Amino acid sequence: MNKNTDRVVLAYSGGLDTSVAIGWIAEQTGREVVTVSVDVGQGGEDLDVIRQRALDCGAVEAYIADARDEFATDYCMPALKANALYEGAYPLVSALSRPVIAKHLVRAAREFGASTVAHGCTGKGNDQVRFEVAITSMAPDMDCLSPVRDLALTRDVAIEYAEKHSLPIETTKHNPFSIDQNAWGRAVETGFLEDLWNAPTKDVYTYTDDPTYPPLPDEVIITFKEGLPVAIDGAAVTPLQAIQELNRRGGAQGIGRIDMVEDRLVGIKSREIYEAPGAVILIEAHRALEAVTLERLQRRYKRQIEQTWGELVYEAQWYSPLKRSLDAFIEDTQHYVSGDIRMVLHGGRATVNGRRSESGLYDFNLATYDSGDTFDQSSSRGFIEIYGMQPKLAAARAERLGEGEGF
Ligand code: ARG
Question: What's the pTM value of the predicted model, to 2 decimals?
């Protein structure tokens, strides 16, 4: 077999497990390993440092991609337009990053002649499903491999392997948590958080400061154009800049901390702590603008679509036909979602206190109780007459049949 068409592409974070996986996969499968590291705004180590480590650990090629803007624009912004919160609370931080990482994995697999894509996820979580379903949705010919799940690469084995082969990676630093972070937010699990009664300690958080001791209130004006944030306090921003700035300002006020028990796709209930200040602020603001600009029935129906959209994305269906169809619906609703939302960020909350839109459906003269009222109140009489017709008929029937409630 031609070695060059039989390589394995590995999603590489630079951490212990995936560093060991490079050599482990090569040994177990007899194939060359190409690593792929994608910047989705997770911060931390420089990608060039990570790239060099991959090569030092035995990768034949190490591909890196700065996908921060792509992630913000093509993955986070659709989630914002969908006001996406899984089980009413989780802004889909990890669920959104997997499809963009998968896209770069597939791209690298094509470029470097690989027929298998590997990742560092365990066999218990959602992310294995998201990576593999995303990969085969884009490239039905690809094979997927999880060294932890499929090649018995446990934590202890990894530490032993790294020490034996003197890999350039720390094996002693014990992080009590499993953390996944990107521009949209941060997810923390395991360790003492697995006892649902244990409150998170201070060291769990890095994107947010303690909301109990907030600095002075911070007022922010977010300008939206067709559902997208385009300016903050009058200064033009890209989607990535909008998220970053609101992460910073919201984080300082302790906004966007979420402590929840969620239902994983694989059936397990798990406890996770999230921090997503920018996402929470943007969704709150976007919803407030939709309240002004969307027609009532469209808005009501969109709420159902939003819930399904969030579930699909959580459940690994980013590249699925239904998700695409729902995107088209959501996109259509955003045409008039333009205007300004003013919020006060303080003490862990983002509170909307002003809205302004040229494309809204709010009509001051219809709404006002002062002079200038253009609403013809006399027409409400006939409206109520017809609107209440069937409940009235039902009540009359009940009385006729002696089944009335006796009011
Ligand atoms: N539970 C979240 C999800 O399935 C986050 C998964 C990754 N979390 C982590 N702490 N490593 O989307």
Answer: 0.97
